Amino acid sequence: MKTKKKRIAQEIQSRILTIVIAIFMVVAVVVAVMVGNVSLSAQKNDLEMQSKAASYQLEIFFSGVYDHCGADGA
Question: Could you tell me the pTM of the whole model?
Answer without folding.
Answer: 0.60
